Amino acid sequence: MEITLKYYNLVAEVAGKTTEKLALPVGKEGITLGELLELLIQKYGREMAKLLFREQGKINSSLLILANGKLLTKGGEETEEILKEFIAPGTEIALLLAIAGGERD
Questions:
Q1: CB within 8 A of 77, min separation 6: which ones?
Q2: Strands 19-23 and 2-7: what pairing?
Q3: Model confidence at 75: pLDDT above 70
Q4: CA 94/CA 82 separation, integer angstroms
Q5: Which InterPro entries match (predicted)?
């Protein structure tokens, strides 16, 4: 059983890819979002940790996480509840940073 991960902008740069399949641990029917983010930090290291979290246990307020197109993150609010969100096999997770910039006329 696996989930599909899609990475955009800075998250894709750190991962070195835009998509990957992640096999769930044997015997698990799914994982929490918190467990998933920890797996990504173990796999991609400190740079990924800096993108995903701003403080210990607080999701980066610029990080957008979508599960099958549904926005899970809310600007860093309710981190504890969001980290408990259950991710079932077959789910597609998208991770991207909201980036502002450009010139205004």
A1: none
A2: antiparallel
A3: no
A4: 15
A5: Beta-grasp_dom_sf, Mopterin_synth/thiamin_S_b, ThiS/MoaD-like
